[in-house]
Amino acid sequence: KAIEIGYIIDHTFWGKGYATEIVKTLLDWAKDNLKYDEIFAFTGSNHLASIAIMKKVGMDYIENKNLKGIECVLYKVILN
Question: How far is residue 41's CA from residue 48's CA, in Å, rounded to a whole number?
């Protein structure tokens, strides 16, 4: 079983490490409280900051995908 993680942060707060801390906290919580095997995340392929966050929290690149006309990258982390 799998679930998707996502976030939206006003760009006045970008670059302060908040998104990384939010994602780390959500992944830790998910490991302890959910019965999913994997968590997925995606972002636009040109959104380098979000890609960096996914890498920082230990997510692995899966593939590029076109979602509704937007080129995206898909990452995942295995929980168990």
Answer: 14
In the block, tokens 């019965």 appear at 35
d(C-alpha 55, C-alpha 11), whole Å: 20
Residue labelled with tokens 């692995």: 60
Beta-carbon count within 10 A of 57 CB: 22
- The predicted-structure confidence for 22-56, as pLDDT tens digits, reads as follows 999 999 999 899 888 899 999 999 999 999 999 99
DSSP per position, 12-62: GGTTSSHHHHHHHHHHHHHHHH---SEEEEEEETT-HHHHHHHHHTT-EEE
Q: Is 11 helix (H, G, I), strand (E, B) or coil?
A: helix
